[in-house]
């Protein structure tokens, strides 16, 4: 029997999502925590950060 794969659900980035991502970047929040809060993957967050030109995944 074939294994069922999870369907990819794409959500658009709203202005408030972008504002929140930038705030987390300034606060140096770990990417794992941001991913759980926003219900997005780490990869999606990192890609958007690159497009916006903000840093993510800061080490303390």
Helical proportion, percent range: 40-55%
Which structural category do the helix and sheet elements fall into? Answer: mainly alpha
- The mean pLDDT is 89
List unreliable stretches of 5+ residues. none
Count of helical regions = 3
Number of DSSP E strands: 0
User: What does the oligomeric state look like here?
Assistant: single chain
Amino-to-carboxy terminus distance: 47 Å
Describe what you observe in this structure.
- By secondary structure, this protein is mostly helical.
- 53% of the residues lie in helices and 0% in strands.
- It contains three helices and no strands.
- The protein is elongated.
- It starts with 14 loop residues before the first helix and ends in an 8-residue tail after the last helix.
- The mean pLDDT is 89.
Topology (SSEs and partners):
Layout: H1 15-27, H2 31-38, H3 42-52
In short:
It contains 3 helices and no strands. With 60 residues, the chain is mainly alpha-helical.
Question: What keywords describe this structure?
Answer:
60 residues; mainly alpha
């Amino acid at each position: 029997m074939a294994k069922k794969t999870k369907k990819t659900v794409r959500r658009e980035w709203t202005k408030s999502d972008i504002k929140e991502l930038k705030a987390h970047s300034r606060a140096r929040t770990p990417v794992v925590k941001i991913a759980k809060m926003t219900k997005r993957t780490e990869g999606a967050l990192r890609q958007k950060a690159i497009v916006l030109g903000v840093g993510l995944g800061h080490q303390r």
